[in-house]
Structures are given as C-alpha cells and as structure tokens.
Amino acid sequence: MRLIPREVETLWTLFTGPVVWALHFLACYAAAAIYCAKASEAPFSFDALRLSLFAITVVALVAILAAAWLSWRQWGFGSGDPPHDAPTRHDRLLFQGFATLLLSGLSFIAVIFVSVPLLFIEVCAR
Amino acid sequence: MVPGELGFVRHLALGLRRSISESLEGRTQGEAPTILRYLLPFTALILVGCGGQQSALDPSGEESEAVYRLFIVMVIGGVAIWLGVSALYIYAARHRQTSWPPAQASALIGWGGVAFPVVVLLALLGYAVWLMPVVRPWNSLAGTDGAIEVTGEQFWWRIRYPGVNGNPAFETANEIRLPVGQPATFSLDATDVIHSFWIPALGGKMDMIPGRTNFLTLTPKRTGIYRAPCAEFCGTSHAYMAFSVVVMEQEDFEVWRRRQISGHERSADQGWELMLRHGCLGCHSLRGEKIGGATAPDLTLIGARHSIGAGTLANTAENIARFIRSPVSVKPGAKMPAFDMLPQREIDDMARYLGGLK
Amino acid sequence: MTNAASSERTADVQEEDLRRVWANPTGWRYWTSVNNTQIGLWYGSAAFIFMLFAGVLALLVRLQLAVPDNDFLSADMFNQAFTLHGTVMMFLFAVPIFEAVAIFLLPSMLGARELPFPRLSAFGFWSFALGGVFVCGSIFFNAAPNSGWFMYPPLATDKEYSGIGADIWLLGLSFIEVASIAAAVEIIVGIMKCRAPGMRINMMPLFAWYLLIVGGMILFAFPPLIAGDILFEMERMFDWPFFDAKRGGDPLLWQHLFWIFGHPEVYIIFLPAIALMAMIVPTFAQRPIIGYSWIVLAAVGTGFLSFGLWVHHMFTTGLPQISLAFFSAASEAVAIPTGVQIFVFIATMLAGRVIFSLPMLFGAGGLAIFVIGGLTGVMVALAPFDWQAHDTYFVVAHLHYVLIGGMLFPVLAGIYYYYPLINARKLSDRLGKIAFWLMFIGFNVAFFPMHLTGLRGMPRRVFTYPAEVGWDLLNLISTVGAFIFATGVALVVIDILRPKHREPKGKMNPWNAGTLEWISEPEENWGVRSIPIIKSRYPLWDQPGLIDDINKGRFYLPDTQDGRRETLVTSVLDADPVQCLRVGGTSYLTIISALSLGGVFIALTFHWWLLTVLCGIVTLGAILIWLWTGTSEIPKRNERDIGLGVTLPLYVSGPASVGWWAMFITMAGDGTAFASLMFGYFFYWTIHPDFTAGLPGPGAGWPIVAVALFALAWLAMLLARHANANDRVWMARLSLLGSVPITLAACLAGLAGPYLHDMQPTVHVYPAIVWVISLWTVLHGLVAIIMQLYCLAGSFAGRLTASYDADLRNVMLYWHFLMITAMISFGVLGLFPEVR
Predict the structure, then answer these.
(1) Cβ–Cβ contact B133 with A under 8 A
(2) Which residues from B are below 8 Å from C348, CB to CB?
(3) Do B258 and B278 belong together in one domain?
(4) Touching C: which chains, 3+ CB pairs < 8 A?
C-alpha cells in the first residue's frame, strides 16, 4: 500500500500549488501587518520576523515541489505529450497530472515573487 | 435653451480656439523645436505631455525624479513588448504558407508566455521594491517632530508649521512654502472625509484619513510654484480643492516665515471695520488679533497667496469679492454662508482689504 | 423498412412531446418562463441596455470635461453620473453579461437539456432586473449615489455628506449580489454535474473551464462585499460606528472589504471574455487549441492570484511598505497567466490557418488594446509608480484599456460569433467592420491621451478643471474620441435591432465550429434533442454524423416521461451518467419571490419598516412553497430508462445530488461572508492598543453556553438523520422536534452575552462588532429552525423517508457549517478578550 495513491481520483489535487501559494501569501501578509501594527508590543525584532517568513517560504517551496513531483508522476514523468484529449480515463489522468504540474510551476514562481519584499524591506516603515 | 447648454456651447468654441492657439504658441514650456509646432495635433500632445506646474512628468523633487526614471524605463520596455506582441499576432493571423507544427507552437507558449515575462517581471519587481525604501526612507518616522501638519477639510487645507529652532508655530491655509533642497516631512490627517495629499512635481501622494495620521517626506530640488490637487474624491467640490506649493531659496523662506510669524498688521481701513462688523472673525482668524475663529481657513497674509478658495480662483480683489458674495456659486458645497445681502460696495471694500494683506 | 418507418414515427412523436414539455408559456405568462436559454437572452438584453445607459452617462461626463470651467453639468449631477457609470458598468453590465452568456450557452455546450436549477436562474434574473432598474432610476429623481462606485466612508456613510443615494447603492446592489451568487451556484453545479456522458474534464470546452473558475471566484469575492454592505448599512441606518474614527471605527476596513471583492471582480469580468476568445480562435484557426492545459493553468492561476491583489488599490493609504510590496509582487505575478493566455491564442493561430472574420477582427482589436492596459497595469502595480499615478486619469486610461480591450471587444466578438444561435442569421459584415473601426479608433483617441492627462496631474472624479493647468486640449481630444466610440457602439446596436426576417436563414453552424453549442437551434428550447456521448474536445469536427444522431434522437433521453423536464447528471471527473434529474418547470413563484425580496430591500432603503416585514414574510412564504412543491419530489417510479440500455435513478440524496452541491457552494459563500466579519473583529484589534476601549465585553460564560447548546442541537440533528436513515421514523421526528427549542435556546444564549453586559453598539465599534457577529450567527440559527420545522413537516407529509432523505441531508450540511460558525464566533467573542 502506498502512502499516496499513484493515481489520485479527485479534481482537488489540481489546486494544491495555488493553495500553498495562498497560504504562504496570507502568512506573509498577516504576519507583517500584525507585527507592524503591534510593533511596540512585539517580543522579537522585524529581522526575526523576516527570517521566519523566509523559513516559511522555503517550506512552501518544498511543498509545491512535492506536489509537482506527485503530478509529474501522475503525468507519467512526461512519457506522453499533450494534448491528452483521448476519451479515456488514462488520458484524463495524464491531463490532470500535466495541468497540476503547470500550476505547481506557476505557484512556485509566484511564491518567489512574493518573497522578494522580504529581501529589500528591512523596517516597518510606511 | 437652458443657460447651461448655451454656456457649454460657448465654452466648447472658446476652449477649442484657446487650446489650438496655445499649442501653436508652444505656451507650455515652449522648449520643443519650432518645426514640431506645426504638426498638430501630435505636436500638441507632445507639448502638453510634459511640462506644467502640476505634472509628474516634469519632476522637481527627489521622489518624483526617481519615479520618473522608473516610468521611462517601463515605457521603453512596454512599447517594445507591445510592438513585439502585435507583430507576432499579425504574423500569426496573416501567415499563409505553412502552419507551425503543434510542438513548436506549444514551445512558444512556454518561452513567450512564461519564461520571458517571469524574467522581465522579476527584474522590474526587484527594481521597484528596492526603490520603495529609497524614495520613502524609513527614518522619516523618527523625524516627525518637525513635521508640517496638513489637515484636509471639505474643501480646503489647514496647514500648521511647527515651532522649530526657536521659531513659534503658526497656522496658514491652502499654500505651503518650502526651502529648496531640504527634506520636508508632512503629517497628514483629515477631519471629515478622506482626502489625499499630492504634489505631482515633488512626489507621490499620501491619503489623509480621519482617525489616522500618515507621514510623507518630500525633498524639492528646484525653486518654483507648483499646484497640488486633492487626489481622493471628497465630495461635491473635490475639483475645487487644491493648494499651491512655493519652493524658495532658504533666505527667502526665512523672510517669509518671519513675516508669517509677525502676523496680521491691522490698518485703519473701512474694509477691516466691515470685516469686524459682519463677523468674519467668527470663523476665520488673522494671527495676532484677539478674536478669531478656527473653523475656517486662516486669512493671515492672504493677499500673498497664489490663489483663493483653495486653488479655485486667481487671487484678485474681484475674485475675493465674488467669493464673499456667494461662496456656493463659486464652489458648490462650501460651508461659508453667502453675503449677497450686503451692498456691493462693502463687499468690495473687504475684498480690497484682504487682497492687500501681503 | 416498416421498422425504420415506425421508429421514425416514434421519434417524431417523442419530438413533439419534448417540444410541448419544454415550450415557453405564451401571452403574459411568457414572463414566467424559467428555461435557461430564454433567461439567458433576457439577462443579456437587460445587461446590454444597462450598458447603453451607463454609456450615455459616460458621454455626459465627457461633455462636461470637454473644456475647462464648464457648467454643462452641476458638480452634484456630475458626481451622480460618474458614480452610476462605474456602478452600472461593473455590477449591471460586466458581471451579468457573462452570467447571461453562460446560462445561454452552457446547456447546449455541455450537451445538457438544462442546467440543474432553471428556477434559480429566473429568480436571479428578476432580482437583477428589479435591482438594476431601482439603482439606475434613482438618477431621474436626482437621488443617485454620488460618492463614487467604491463608496468610501466616511463620505458615503455620514449622512452629513451623502444622501439616500448611498442607501440605494447599498441595498440595490446587495440585492444584485444575491443574483450573482445564485448564478454562480447554477454555473458551478451545472458544469461539474451536468456534462454530457463522456465529456471528461480533459474534454470540457474551455469556456466551461473558465466559467467553473469564475463561479468559484464569485463565491469568494462577493461575500466580503456583502459583509461590508452589512456593516455599512448598520452604520447608516442605526449609527453603529464601524467606519467612524471618533468611536473606534476605521474607514480603511471598508476599503479592505471592498477591494477584496473589487479586484477579483476585474478577473471575474475578464476571464469569461477570454473564454469567449478561447472558443472563437480555434474555430477560425480551423484547428484544436494548442495548450489546452495551459489555459487551465491560466484560468486557475489567475483565479487564485487575483485574491492577492486587493491592497494595490490602497497603495497610498499609508500601510507599511512591506505590505504594499507583497501586493506589488502578487500583482506582477498575475501578469504571467495573463501572458500565457495571449500566447496560447497566438500559438493556436500559428499552428492553424486563420480565416480572418469579423469576430477575429474584434478579438485582434481587443488584444491590441488589452496588451496596453496590461502593460500599464504592470506599471501601476509597482507601488512607487502608483504613488504618482493613483487616482489620476492615468488609472482611468489603464482600467478602460483593460476592461474595454479585455472585456467589451471580446464580448462584441462573441455577439458577432454567436448571433446565429439567437436568430439563425449572421449580423452584417459590412456594418460590423465600420463599427469596429469607429470603436477602435474612437477608443484610442478617447483614452490614450488620458495617460498623459493623468501624469500631468489631473485627478479622477473632478467635475471640472481650471484652464491654466494645461489639460484643455487633451480633454477635448478625449471627448471627441468618446463620441466616435459611441457612434461605433450605436452601429452595433442598429445591426442587432434591424429587422432581419426578410433575410434567408443561414445554415446551422455557419462558422464550421467544433464545439457542441452549435447543435442548438434558435427555435428549440430543449438544449439538445437527445443527450450525446462525447468522445472529443471538438465533437462536431471529430464525431461524424453526430448532429444527425442527436437530432434524430438516437442518444440518451430522446423522450419525455410524466410530462417533466429532464436532464442527465453525470460524475465530476469522467462524466459517467448517475441520475436522471427532473428540473423545475415554468413557475410564477420565482417572480413572486424575487419581487418580494426586492420589496424588502427597497422598503429598507426608505425605512418603511412595516412594508419590509410584509415583503419579508411574502418572500419566505414564496420560497417555502417553491421548495415544497418544486424540489426533492418523490418520483412515481424509482428509475428511468434513458435509452441505449441505460437505466438511472430519478432520486438521489447527499453528495450524489445536485441539491447537496448547491447547499455546499452556497454555504462556502456564506462562510466567506462570515470570515469577512471575523476579519473585521481582528482588524479592530490590530489598529487599537486596546480594542475594547475598556468597555465591557460579552463575558466568557454566555458565549460558551451558546456554543454548548449549538453543539447539542447539532448532535440532535445528527441523531435525527441517523434515525431517519434507519427508518426509525418517530425517533427522527422527536430528535428534530427536540432540536428546535435547543437551537432557540442557543440563539438566546448567544444574544445574552452582549445584552446582559449592556453593550451599546452606538457607543463604540467594539460592542458594535460583537453585536453584529452575534446577530449573524443567531440569524443563521433561526434559519436552521425553519429548516428543522420544514423537515419535520416533510416527515409527517411523507416526503421525507428513509430512502428519500435529500432534504434532511442538505439541512445536515447546513448544520455542519452552522456549527463551525457558532464555534468560531462565540468562541472568539467569549474567549479572545480574555486571552489576548
């Protein structure tokens, strides 16, 4: 028995990457907003916050990579080329794998985009 | 025909004539080569496209210059991308000989739709995010003690210069004067609705929100007179809410500041008597006078300002009189009551007196 | 031979039966039609008329701005005109037109007779039409909203600054938002569950993919605005100070809630238009789309990213730079999926042979315009540049380039493309070309100069400007362009309206498209004559004889039974047939409930409390009758032979049923609105050192009691469902009956906290937000009681039994959501002040 079944029979796996992006984005935004609003009460520095958000970024990227690997596997490691439009369950699965892989790629890029501010913005200034 | 429509037709004709003649004369800055002036309307577009006392394309401050550079970079890149995409599209629509193999077309999606934008956008994002703390440095928060307080009210600006270097604080309205080359920090607030503080020639805008205080630091680099509109819709006369910014040499600024601090110099004048009698000082103030209200714009040295009614009218005695007679017809929604029951002579006297306060 | 003849005769009889069952009523009863194809036409026409109305407003605005110091419009009338222009274009045109196109096209495109909830569509349409007329009509009484389409408080909340127009905006549009969510439910469930057998998700038309994503976006984007509307109206009506800074409120909360809605809204508008292009381009490139999966990536990616952009409308509000930068980053990232879509079209054209028809011309013009809007979008998404450009005519130019290039031109392409489905004839090629060039040139003449006007310092929403600043010529050019553009639009209208009955009818599928919507015939109401088995993404290209087989009734459901309208329900991934669904037929209940609900909103606007209550009762009654007579009906037979040797159940319950999905989707939206209210609670916590302002809270005791009682009622409901499923009828009835007083007690306990601690909602925002969250939960509790009583009545009436338990299972789903809501709301209200 596998931990994750080889072929996942649900629509929802498609959204894994974007959901990770959304959680990462929400974490960054909420953490920074609350920290900057309550900066006077915060027991740690803004740099500590940035570092932990970097850590969260790494976790998010790893999660997306994991999703990408699973979808790559579902896509048969690229053994068949798109368009995957045959009226078979097999092609439907390949399509799901490929679309999920593409979405993981986009989510990966988007997470990197969102982490750019962590690099340049060093204080809670307005 | 209703008068409004007649007025519109007249304006249309006048406006058309005026615009064309002005463009021909190259009135706005006039720095374009002579030959361009005859290439209407493109010339006109280019001419009016840059200069002006209220233009972000004619930067006179540190922030506006940095943003202008960013803008130029983006325009060049944008034009190139637009031409590229359009050319590709036209080619795709018109090609007749051979169709691309699907795999090749598919690869184009990856390169053109993903790889290229990712690289360009990431570079651009890095540039802009790096720029943010550069143009709006975070140490501005620490130095807010000397901030010029600006409060937006429907539809004018209350301006309070802080007491610094032994100079007492003073209040004025609808005109800000700044010494050139020095960072000026503004503390921005509003009493009624949201307004927005924007001096296009010096830098970007910052909203003035009731219950919040925002700060903005701008560094003017050239002397001059600039116009600054309210940039957040704030009600009926949003269009008539602007202020002037006068950037001066340091010495001139000190002279102006001393003159402001010394306040109102009363002269035995019919206009002054009338102002007292009609209760102007119930709402307005003239610095140094014992009585004076705080609900309306300060009038100290109003004659030296570059406009009246918060950027609504040119500062002339006739315009002041017009405003006193019926503020609402000049500026819809203004809170000042009309004084059209007074004889014209009295209004003129007060207007002349105010216009002389320099 | 005799056999063939007899089967043909059977087919004719079946066809007559079908036609009769699906026919629209005639005479004045025509307006009680509920057929989606019909409703789609009404919806589209109404939205188009609203667009023309808003366009006229825009022309008035442009006339006023043609020359400096103009007095064509008064300041107040100008403010009403631009507010209504924005509002109508966004809420009454851009979103509804795609809902219209969707419900018009989807049934035949998916190979379905009908979407699952035609009555809901009718209800949505009537809500939309009434709300729209109410909002638009206000300007004729000089009572239109005049605070901008974004309605920022305090300008729009404080009665000193804004009149009844603000209430009309809030209540009129809340009503329309209800219609949008109704459409979202219809579209999502329709696409997931009503596709023709064999139309697996890798074979769905791209239009359906886009609409599925857009439906999901509506579900998460509109509720925050509804939550904002509630806070807003509570402030205007009862002086609860949510946005009043003097009493702890904050105008920025509205901006957050509005733009959490407002930015996804842009993509809710844009994606369906691109979806039309995704149908048009393959047809004229004469080949399947290249990059089907890429389009799915783009649609899903845009759907998600669009929720991370809202603060870029607030770059100048003084939020911390790091927050601005996060949103800059996401706003740049969203350009990637947008670029992908453009390149998918280009790649498809490169790989095919393009017939450059009128729809393609509109598409190309739209693309040229949209790319400029996209590029300026990349610019304004960068905070430093936006600090200059924000709230100037640069943004006016940007947004019109995006919306007109990305939405209006593709929609017009869609109209020229799909018009033969409405009237069996094409629109005029010659008129269309003239209209296109007028619009294309006029648009650019009008809007391109605005980039300069804005950067030269002209703010938005000014009713006039002084002569000496140097905007005169630019504005005059814009006005001239606007009129050229309007001439083009007028030509399109003339082309659509001119009588065409003398022209010969065109052939079916005149463009030789490959997708299934082209099998539908304008004069037939049944979506498809028989429901085909799909084996390709472009079945009309790849499945020879398909049209003939469909129209001869050789596929599923060629006949009708019991005089009912029927369609197939299939599984989500592989579209295996699972149920024969009987959908609602013609009914006046939809109009009554929509009009009476409209009455509630309109009466509220004018504070006619008695009428509000009366209309509310009528609405509730109409909806209950509608549910009782039109849903979860126990069929005479359990199964139905749908042809080709397949027999399907007529009744299913739980996740297999469309009703359960509708409840789930509705509750997802409802949960989003609740989350938005909770966001407000924590927002106030972040902006104040002590957000309670030293005022008493609800205490921990009563909220905990409330949670406990809700849990008890929930357990009773679980027991009821379980007992019912095991045919222990009396046990089920007793549990249902028992849960009613427990729920009532839970509601009372929920209100006891704030009430007994004398929390005054008008004093400060803290008591106000506690009250509003408590009331939200309690109101849901009261609705739950109605549902419990409804199920109880159903049990006694014999329409809720062990095997026919759809109602109870849907109510149970509602209860799961209610339980989560109650736990979060009372848990936070009771405990957060203690632990913070």
Answers:
(1) yes
(2) 105
(3) no
(4) A, B
CB distance C382–B128 less than 8 Å? yes
Question: Which residue in the set C329, C336, C537 is minimally distant from A85, CB to CB?
Answer: C537
CB contact under 8 A, A95 and C573: no
Distance from CA of C333 to the nearest CA of A (A): 6
In chain A, what residues touch B140 (CB-CB under 8 Å)? 125
Q: What is the dihedral of CA C242, C244, C248, C251, to 10 degrees?
A: 70
In this structure, is the dihedral angle defined by the CA atoms of residues A4, A9, A13 and A14, taken in order, positive or negative? Answer: positive
Question: Residues of B with CB below 8 A from A105's CB?
Answer: 114
Task: Report d(CA C709, CA B246) in Å as an integer.
Answer: 68
Under an 8 A CB cutoff, do A122 and B121 touch?
no
Burial class (CB in 10 A: 0-12, 13-18, 19+), B230: buried
Residue B20 has pLDDT above 60, yes or no: no
Find out whether C454 and C393 touch, Cβ atoms under 8 Å: yes
Chain A partners of C202 at a C-beta cutoff of 8 Å? 84-85, 91-92, 94-96
B232 and B151 inside one domain: yes
Tens digit of pLDDT for each residue in C380-430? 999 999 999 999 999 999 999 999 999 999 999 999 999 999 988 899 999
Contacts of B142 (CB under 8 A, 6+ apart): none
What distance in Å separates residue A2's CA from the closest CA in chain C?
A: 22
Strand positions, DSSP E, C466-520: none
Give me the domain span that covers residue B175. Answer: 141-262
Which residue segment(s) compose the domain that A68 sits in?
A: 15-120
Is the ipTM higher than 0.90? The answer is: yes
Nearest CA to CA, how far is C63 from chain B (Å)? 9
Number of domains in chain A: 1
pTM summary value: 0.93
Backbone angles phi, psi at C582, to 5 degrees: -95, 120
Contact C222, C173 (CB under 8 A): no
Asked whether C102 and C180 are in contact (CB, 8 A), the reply is no
CATH topology of domain C657-835: Four Helix Bundle (Hemerythrin (Met), subunit A) (1.20.120)
Is the pLDDT at B3 greater than 50? The verdict is no
pLDDT at residue A2 is higher than 60: no
A6 part of a folded domain? no
Question: Would you call A121 and B103 a contact, using CB atoms and an 8 Å cutoff?
Answer: no
Shared-domain flag, residues B227 and B276: no
Count up the domains in chain B and report the number: 3
- Name which of C371, C374, C348 is nearest C360 in CA terms: C348
Query: What pLDDT, in 10s, does the model give residues C179-223?
Result: 899 899 999 999 999 999 999 999 999 999 999 999 999 999 999
Let me know if residue B119 belongs to a domain.
no
Has residue A36 been placed in a domain? yes
Strand residue runs (E) in C237-281:
none
Residue B172 sits in the same domain as residue B230 = yes
Which pair of structure tokens corresponds to residue B215? 């700060």
Facing residue for B109 by CB, picked from C333, C347, C467:
C347
| CB–CB contact C321 A126 (8 Å) | yes
Task: Tell me the count of A-C CB pairs closer than 8 A.
Answer: 136
Alpha helices in C310-357 (DSSP H): 321-333, 335-351
Both B278 and B305 in one domain: the answer is yes
